[in-house]
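lol forgot to send this yesterday, sorry. struct tokens for the thing we talked abt
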């Protein structure tokens, strides 16, 4: 019996040791929806984000939904965007928009602000911002 208990405990410990995805850590679909909505709300409300706001259709319901779907899969949750639209081809989809350092930084600041407003802890914000930076920087397609 002791051996069986040890195996069960070892299995439980292994399951707990598995790293969680950003999607799980941030709280899943409901929290992701809140993040995306706050991000777009800030983009609409704050003059500092006028440059990137102008790149989005009005109303921006479709953009909100696509970002939610993309981030779900990108963060390790359900791959909603791929299931509906296929491969994101993220850079190609953004080539029609002039994206430089200024636009990259506006996007990142709006996302950082949204996470702050929603009370994300510092460690999670840093982890997410590092991931967001790498992708946002790769999206630049115009010289500064």
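and heres what i got for the seq, position by position
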């Amino acid at each position: 019996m002791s051996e069986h208990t040890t195996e069960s405990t070892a299995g439980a410990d292994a399951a707990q040791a598995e790293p969680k995805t950003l999607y799980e850590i941030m709280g899943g679909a409901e929290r992701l929806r809140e993040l995306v909505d706050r991000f777009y709300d800030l983009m609409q409300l704050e003059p500092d984000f006028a440059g990137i706001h102008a790149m989005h259709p009005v109303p921006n319901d479709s953009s909100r939904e696509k970002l939610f779907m993309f981030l779900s899969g990108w963060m390790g949750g359900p791959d909603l965007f791929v299931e509906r639209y296929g491969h994101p081809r993220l850079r190609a989809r953004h080539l029609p928009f002039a994206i430089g350092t200024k636009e990259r930084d506006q996007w990142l600041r709006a996302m950082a602000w949204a996470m702050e407003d929603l009370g994300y802890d510092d460690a999670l914000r840093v982890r997410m911002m590092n991931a967001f930076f790498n992708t946002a920087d790769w999206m630049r397609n115009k010289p500064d």
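Residues 1-9 have pLDDT under 50 and may be disordered. anyway ping me if u want another try
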